Amino acid sequence: MNPDLHATAEALDAADPLRPHRDLFVGARTPLVYFDGNSLGRPLAATVGRLERFVRDEWGGRLIRGWDESWMDLPFAIGDEIGRVALGAAPGQTVIGDSTTVMLYKLIRAAFDAQAARDPGRVEIVIGTDDFPTDRYIVEGIAAERGGRVHWIEVDRAEGVTTEQIAGAVGEKTAVVVVSHVAYRSAHLADARGITEVARAAGALTVWDLCHSAGAVPIHADRWGFDIAVGCTYKYLGGGPGSPAFAYVAHRHHETLVQPIPGWMGTADVFSMGPHHAPAAGMRRFLSGTPPILGMLAMEDTLALIGDVGIDAIREKSVELTTFALEVVDEELAPLGVHVASPADAAARGGHVTLGHPLMRQATAALWRHDVIPDYRDPEGLRIGLAPLSTSFTETLTGLLTVRDTLVRLTPTA
Ligand SMILES: Cc1ncc(COP(=O)(O)O)c(C=O)c1O
């Protein structure tokens, strides 16, 4: 092995301005290599105390009074904070709601219906063939439910949707375009501003899936003219397993979008218990039932950290981490037949890299047994997620060398 790689990793760690933040995370001082911060972020130590205090003092102490005192506002307060530190969104446009899947359904359907009401000829939803399953299934479901149809864009699995592809797909029949900012498989970083503009010029609304970009890649939702966006909070935003999604809806669409699950929490006067649903003004109208308060608490600590560090510094380290990882892959794994199924250009890549090899499924199971935790995505893809706030360069090198050794062990000798 190239001894320079160790020296490089150590030098990069020594020069890393984000290095001290790693120690704020639970478990970061153990030898475990965590390559899945793009799927479930590590918790911050501060969150342990926050959750305990909440159960004891707020839930246990305030009981139902907590709703009036602060919990009712939490989906909006935390939503605004996500908007501020991670989305480039002015207040009043971001809320914490249901799961990502449910939020996507509600908002894609609201967008489809608003478009159909404006122009019944707009019946198509544009989406890539390699988009995340939930996004594709929802789009198919809404098309079937509302008499629309899906316009599929054929997408290269090692790449992602390009602006040119979107330009070629949208037209006078397009109602909605659904795109992932960072592709879940390849980490391809879409041109969010360009795609939004192309879709708007064709009269379509765009719904962005920000799951793999929020907290890792700078987003300027307001400046780029986003219509609607939804994203997970348990990846780079530290919300914990199953924490609820955020949704962004630009001010200009609040009055025209009607979401399809009209529950009491989305009404103008929640406790009036009126005979019919009257949608609230602003982001409240996109809520349906009682907000999942416990699931929102953990992200407050991560959001504070992202706010302190700044998303640009996070992105800078993210690029350095993935660039270094690809250097190690080139020197140590490529000779074993490993190929990179992510964009080579750092500017077109999000926060993870995917490595292809026919033995990756078996390798993942073996790696987990050795406390190296990536995840696996068909076909033969090992996803290496490098969360900039909690991952070091030395950890990255150690993990990738373990991938190399595991593949060597698994490779049948002739
Ligand atoms: C890109 C993307 N979209 C949507 C989802 C669905 O999120 P949820 O399972 O929280 O509904 C995920 C989950 O990992 C995802 O990665």
UniProtKB/TrEMBL annotation:
Could you tell me the keywords of this UniProt record? Aminotransferase, Hydrolase, Pyridine nucleotide biosynthesis, Pyridoxal phosphate, Transferase
- Class in the EC hierarchy, top level: hydrolase
Quickly give the catalysed reaction. L-kynurenine + H2O = anthranilate + L-alanine + H(+); 3-hydroxy-L-kynurenine + H2O = 3-hydroxyanthranilate + L-alanine + H(+)
Annotated GO MF terms: transaminase activity
Query: What are the coiled-coil residue ranges?
Result: none
Q: Which residues form the signal peptide?
A: none
Which cofactor does the UniProt annotation name? pyridoxal 5'-phosphate
* Tagged with keyword Transferase: yes
* Record-linked InterPro entries: Kynureninase, PyrdxlP-dep_Trfase, PyrdxlP-dep_Trfase_major, PyrdxlP-dep_Trfase_small
Q: Give the stretches traversing the membrane.
A: none
Q: Gene3D superfamilies of this UniProt entry? A: Aspartate Aminotransferase, domain 1 (3.90.1150.10), Type I PLP-dependent aspartate aminotransferase-like (Major domain) (3.40.640.10)
Pathway the protein takes part in: Cofactor biosynthesis; NAD(+) biosynthesis; quinolinate from L-kynurenine: step 2/3; Amino-acid degradation; L-kynurenine degradation; L-alanine and anthranilate from L-kynurenine: step 1/1
Xref: Pfam families: KYNU_C
The catalytic activity of this protein is classed by the Enzyme Commission as: 3.7.1.3
Q: Which family does the record claim for this protein?
A: Belongs to the kynureninase family.
User: What is the role of the protein in this entry?
Assistant: Catalyzes the cleavage of L-kynurenine (L-Kyn) and L-3-hydroxykynurenine (L-3OHKyn) into anthranilic acid (AA) and 3-hydroxyanthranilic acid (3-OHAA), respectively.
Subunit architecture? Homodimer.
Q: Mind telling me what this protein is named?
A: Kynureninase
The source organism is Microbacterium aquimaris
